[in-house]
Amino acid sequence: MELSDIRREYIKGGLRRKDLLSNPIEQFNLWLQQAIDAGLTDPTAMTVATVDENGQPFQRIVLLKNVEKDGFVFYTNLGSRKAQHIEHNNKVSLHFPWHPLERQVHITGTAEKLSTFENIKYFTSRPKESQIAAMASRQSSRISARGVLEGKYLELKKKFEQGEIPVPSFWGGYRVKVESIEFWQGGEHRLHDRFLFTQQDQQWSTERLAP
C-alpha cells in the first residue's frame, strides 16, 4: 500500500463556538478529563518543541504534571538538551495528540523554571525508583553502553537503600506560561474545526481558523 493511500474519515463530530468554554485552560482540563475517561494511553503525554542556538527545532515526548491558571508544568534534567535550548530561547510549543478522540491541542508560550520549593515537593512525591533514576541519568549526555547507566542506578539504589534521596541540583521543572492555545477537532471531508485562543492584557480572544 502506498502511504498516500492511507486515509480515514473523521466521524467523532465537530466543534462549534457555542461548545467552547470561555477560558481555554478550563476547556483544556475538560478535554484532558475526557481523554482520561476514554482510557487513552498516556493522555498526559505531550510533545515539547524547542529551538537550539542555530534555529534547529527539536521535539520530544514529556509528561504533563500539572495544569495551572497561568501555565503547564513538566519536569526534566536541567542539563538536558531541552533545558539548554530553553536557557537560550525560552519560547516553546506543546502538542497533545489525542488521536482516538480525533482531537489535538497546540500551545505556545514561554518556559520559566519552577521554584526550589516546587521542585522538592514534586521530587519527594515520586516513587523512590524514579528518584534514583533521575539522579543516575545525566540526560542527553553520551554514554558508552546501557550497562553504565544500569550500574550507576544500582550503585545509587544501594547507597540510598535506607535513607532519603536528596533532590539533585541538576533536576527541576518548568512552567510554560501560555500565550496561545488551539483546539482542533476532526471533521468529515477534512473540514476540521479549529479554534485559537490568544491572550492580550490578561483577556482571551477566540478566532475560528480554516482547516
TrEMBL record:
List of residues binding substrate: R7, R8, E9, Y10, K65, Y122, R126, S130, R190, L191, H192
PROSITE patterns: PYRIDOX_OXIDASE
Keywords attached to this entry: Flavoprotein, FMN, Oxidoreductase, Pyridoxine biosynthesis
Top-rank lineage group of the source organism: Bacteria
Pathway(s) the chain acts in: Cofactor metabolism; pyridoxal 5'-phosphate salvage; pyridoxal 5'-phosphate from pyridoxine 5'-phosphate: step 1/1; Cofactor metabolism; pyridoxal 5'-phosphate salvage; pyridoxal 5'-phosphate from pyridoxamine 5'-phosphate: step 1/1
Catalytic activity entry: pyridoxamine 5'-phosphate + O2 + H2O = pyridoxal 5'-phosphate + H2O2 + NH4(+); pyridoxine 5'-phosphate + O2 = pyridoxal 5'-phosphate + H2O2
Biological process terms in GO annotation: pyridoxine biosynthetic process
Family as reported in the entry's similarity comment: Belongs to the pyridoxamine 5'-phosphate oxidase family.
Subunit structure and binding partners: Homodimer.
Task performed by this protein: Catalyzes the oxidation of either pyridoxine 5'-phosphate (PNP) or pyridoxamine 5'-phosphate (PMP) into pyridoxal 5'-phosphate (PLP).
Name this protein carries in UniProt: Pyridoxine/pyridoxamine 5'-phosphate oxidase
Natural source organism: Vibrio qinghaiensis
Gene expressing this chain: pdxH
